[in-house]
Amino acid sequence: MIKKYLLIVSVCFASQFYAQNKTDKIPDSLKNANFDYLFDRIEMSDSDTAKQKLYLQAFLFKAKSEKNSEEIINGYKNYVHYSPSPLKLVYADSMIFAAKKAKRNELIGASYLSKGIEYYAQKKHTDALDNYLLADAYISKTNDQYLIFKVKYNIAQIKYYLGYYQEAISLFNECISYFKENNARGYLNSLHSLGLCYNHIGNYGLCTDTNKKGILEGKKLANTEMTAYFNHSEGINQYFKNNYAISIEKIARSLPAIKNKKDFANEAVGYFYIGKSYWSLKKPEVALSYFKKVDVIFKDKGYIRPDLLENYRLLIHYYKSKGHLNIQLYYINRLLKADSIVLQKFKYLSSRITKEYDPHKMLLEKQKIENALNKKKYNDIIFICIIALLFLSLLLIGYLFIRNKRIYKQKFKELMMKIESEIPVEPKTNTNGINEINQDTVTTLMKQLEKFEKDRKFLEKDLTAAKLTAAFGSNPKYLSKVISHSRGKKFTDYINDLKVDYLIQLLKEDKMVRKFTNKALAEEVGFSSTQRFANAFFARTGMPPTYFIEELKKGHS
């Protein structure tokens, strides 16, 4: 069912999922269950991925069987919530496609909103805003007040993130007025974000009042999910009021719940302000342990924002005062990397950042430290030799890069000519040992191989010669010799080439598939690992998959 559906939409939504959605795996009891029951089971089975996958499949299958547009979209939305991160945006696109097919503005807008929220969760704020604006364009044509204010809330979050605090405050106040009577979680979230804005504009009194109100309102509404976040916000606010001990206590109390939600961004901010509080209390050694936790999150998650740059300035200051040049140099490099990311994401803040932190001076400091370290470790002759070797290495790397690009380009042209001319590649046959097999057996195996290729059974993951032999009712020796004779390849190369050839055609025809990562492409055609896929693709085409896709994007398809 799902495989046919994906073909209808030009195979644009990851056909590797067909194996997960085969309707013959869904019990009749689930096919007859209602949507509320299935949704409850999806939420309840969060710790059992196998069961959850079955309920997800059953929900979407039922929605499609009944041609229920709204529930089809909810089915894809379920996948967005519960799929691995690399697949969430693929399912979001499926949701948008289904909504557009239904031709209902509220469904299309809600689908774009869900995609934007997923981008925001992945800290891709520009993409998130683009989708929020698309959502707003559709939802503004409806009278659905909940969706209208949900879009306002999410746009306000982007404005807060980018530093447009007054604009964000105005939007959050509108959301508070609406959600107070209509949605408890939306109301509490809006209060929390409003408090953060007050803190950033220096109105610490209003921030405290808002945080207190948020905690009290949560108790009244019997919804304490946001209590940790109000404490976290107030802890940061207390730092700015110079109440360092209170700041440490409130943030530390909030962190277990925040870590449990895997909210690494607020975790990093919490560590930073605990560290700053200890620094202000003249306990730099204790502060350092928290500053290093911020660096670990930046290293693992890539999360950084302008105020966290001070984390590295304080680390550099500490190790400079101790004379630890190597560690000082390490954190200078970390600061320069963080600064480059911040400047890309916050271009409008560049003038403010330059006043607080001068990258040029930091580069000079870095060079000074490097020179001092080199004088300690190397004499002038060794230093010159290292520079020369580095230069020669760069020349060699550059030469190899240019040569490989030239080779890849030629390979790409040859491959596209073969595809466009539709001339089949003649296999190099190998007659070794084929005559000792009964001709009827050979004929039977040849027909089975043709059907195997026609039905695309080669896309199965972890396919082995033993499995295929068992499916054919033959023996490994005969199958190996027939493949070698008729296809001119060993079994592994035969399967890998079929997978790659299928993927090449899919990439040529379907622009959506070109957006997949190598990992997703490997799963698409049943490779057991990304590395095996990359090796097989290179062996078949003479170029990496990324190069082939980039050339297709240039308009060679």
Structural account:
With 557 residues, this protein is an all-alpha fold. Among the domains are: 1-142, Alpha Horseshoe (Serine Threonine Protein Phosphatase 5, Tetratricopeptide repeat); 304-377; 427-556, Arc Repressor Mutant, subunit A, CATH 1.10.10.60. It contains 28 helices and no strands. The protein has helices at 2-8, 28-31, 35-44, 49-65, 69-82, 85-102, 105-121, 125-139, 145-162, 165-182, 184-200, 204-220, 227-240, 244-260, 264-280, 284-301, 309-322, 325-345, 350-356, 359-377, 380-421, 439-454, 465-472, 476-487, 491-509, 518-524, 530-541, 545-556. Helix 5 (69-82) packs parallel to helix 7 (105-121). The chain is globular, with a radius of gyration of 30 Å.
